[in-house]
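Q: Could you fold this chain for me?
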Amino acid sequence: MDTILDRIVAAKTEELREAKIRCPPGSLERGLAAAPPLRDFTAALSSAAASHPAIIAEIKRGSPSLGCIRPDLNAAHQAEAYATGGAAALSVLTDRKFFWGSDDDFTAARDSADLPMLRKEFIIDDYQIAESRVMGCDCILLIMSILTDRRAAALADSAHALGMTVLAETHSREEVRRTLDHVDFDLIGINNRNLKTFDTRAETTVDLAAEVPDRSQLIAESGLHSPEAIRRLWGLEIRRFLIGEALIKSATPAATLAALIRM
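A: Sure. Below is the predicted structure, expressed as structure tokens.
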């Protein structure tokens, strides 16, 4: 039986085919010269983590597990709130079919906050790497559960060639080890959410953190809703976090984010 992730990848493959017709790879690559200047994603996280939890605050309208929870979301206003609340960086979901996002959300957020930007997308092709940089992306996401070792390594190299940071996302011990052994990554995320079922298990980061030798590269992702959850991981020398749902559901995202940072 196909999983949600299988359906997402199949849809992304078709989207890519259509995108390459609308804007052939050669035309896209010519746009790289006009790409916005890079913002140093890793340095921003390290600077924040020296004194408090470094939070990548995520902008998303919904997900397959939640449905569309914020159809009225204003990406620019949300980015401004995150900047006010003390975010170290931003993440913006751009998948339209399953997450109700768009490239316009990314652009609006980037124009509204002077923070490094992660494009949260299901990247399977070099075309998306160039597309991300043209949009002003500073960090790209490689989801190890949808990529072979060779493909992940090649995509990471393409991103680095354009100056972008690479965040490799994992969910299992096998995926962590594959990343460590085969991919030239900058940051490694441990996602508490299983992208095949979209179930969330808060213990996943705790269980897998010991597999990552350098904690300064580790990002805990998903299912983190309270200062207590952040405090627990901080005690395990985990200093970097990607948080979306708790902030998106909050009526006061700047205050909610500030509380998470204060622990």
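A (continued): Residues 4-22 form the longest helix (19 residues).
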